[in-house]
Design goal:
By secondary structure, the chain is an all-alpha fold. It folds into three domains: about 110 residues, Zinc Finger, Delta Prime, domain 3; about 110 residues, no CATH class; about 110 residues, no CATH class. About 65% of the residues lie in helices and about 0% in strands. The chain is built from 19 helices and two strands.
């Protein structure tokens, strides 16, 4: 693990230096919400040119969103794939004086983004969050945790046990901090208490500091789950593993306005309009969703399914056993709200992606 005070490792320094002279590309003709989707998915797919153009769009419209999103991507998409990368980026991303060493904000953003694009990825923390929060087989455990006293949940985190149980306690305590406990009693547990429990569990101190810094910048649970997954590594350190592109990763489809088709998803107004049109089509995926799910939930479930099939695809995914298992669990159980064969629906959606991309292109031309 690198010193968390260090802005750049030697390898990162090479990447940063090679990109300081990049000129800012023209912004995409999209909203900030679509630009954030492009940025994150391009980093996942290792597409630096696309990610840089999305970054230029955010710097032009809402710069603060760019820095927050990059911090989130560090833990959602890179995680244990490259702790060196997230340490370097997180230590510099929130400090303007540290960004100045790269020149201007654009040079700093370009340096970070290229480093993140080429870094190995591990989406285990996000898949863990989805699994403990949604998988049907975790339903009983979720209900029991809601009734459990906070100090007992902290003990779960600090002691050795099944990763799903410990992660469930972290997620449940964070949710109670945000939304309150049933009947508002007993007192909530502060994030600092959760970090203390993680420290007592054997997480390396420098890893804890990196993840705590990420939490301070994002306010999200994912940095805690990255720390939780790290303690499951043999001997407490990351074991060397292979990296491989996701098998469904294909060449990116560009729309008439030059925007990658994957930009339009459930997290933007434009993407939701496309999903609504897709649901009204006669394709196999729409039929399956219509047969299994009520109208009020179809769009949300389709959005989650689209993420599992298209938006979550990664280049150079870390092939750690626990990470791959968590991906499978999240693919199978990303929604707990309805009885739904997610595996069969994902197969159907892969076949129907050309139709979805056609609807995306038509939406662009109408606008």
């Amino acid at each position: 693990m690198t010193d968390t005070r260090q802005v750049r490792s030697p390898r990162q320094g090479e990447l940063f230096a090679a990109n300081l002279s990049l000129s800012s590309p023209s912004p995409y003709p999209v909203s900030p919400y679509v630009a954030m989707a492009i940025l994150q998915k391009a980093i996942r797919r290792g597409e630096p040119e696309t990610a840089l153009r999305a970054a230029a769009t955010l710097l032009d419209q809402e710069p603060a969103r760019l820095w927050r999103r990059l911090a989130g991507i560090c833990f959602e998409d890179i995680g244990l794939g490259s702790l060196e990368t997230i340490s370097g980026v997180i230590s510099a991303i929130g400090a303007r004086e540290r960004r100045r060493q790269f020149g201007d904000d654009w040079s700093a953003a370009a340096a970070f983004i290229v480093s993140m694009c080429v870094a190995p990825k591990d989406r285990g923390a996000d898949d863990l969050l989805i699994t403990v929060g949604n998988h049907p087989e975790m339903k009983t455990a979720r209900a029991e945790l809601r009734r459990e006293m906070p100090d007992k949940q902290l003990m779960r985190i600090s002691e050795w046990g099944a990763v799903l149980n410990r992660a469930s306690a972290i997620v449940n305590l964070m949710e109670q901090n945000r939304y309150g406990r049933p009947n508002s009693s007993p007192a909530q547990v502060s994030p600092n208490a959760i970090w203390s429990a993680l420290s007592c569990s054997g997480c390396a101190p420098d890893l804890i500091e990196v993840c705590k810094a990420g939490y301070r910048k994002t306010g999200e649970t994912l940095p805690m789950l990255v720390a939780e997954l790290a303690r499951n590594e043999p001997g407490g350190s990351l074991a060397p593993v292979a990296y491989a592109d996701d098998p469904d990763l294909t060449e990116t489809v560009l729309l008439p306005n030059g925007v990658p088709a994957y930009a339009y998803d459930m997290f933007s107004r434009e993407g939701l309009a496309v999903l609504d049109r897709f649901l009204k089509s006669r394709c196999e995926t729409a039929r399956m969703l219509t047969d299994a799910i009520g109208p009020a939930q179809r769009r949300k479930v389709l959005g989650g399914l689209l993420f599992r099939v298209e938006s979550g695809l990664v280049r150079r995914r870390r092939q750690a056993v626990i990470s791959l298992k968590l991906k499978t669990l999240a693919d199978e159980g990303f929604t707990s709200s309805v009885p739904f064969d997610a595996v069969s629906a994902a197969k159907a959606l892969r076949a129907d992606l050309p139709l979805l991309d056609d609807l995306r292109a038509r939406a662009v031309l109408r606008n």
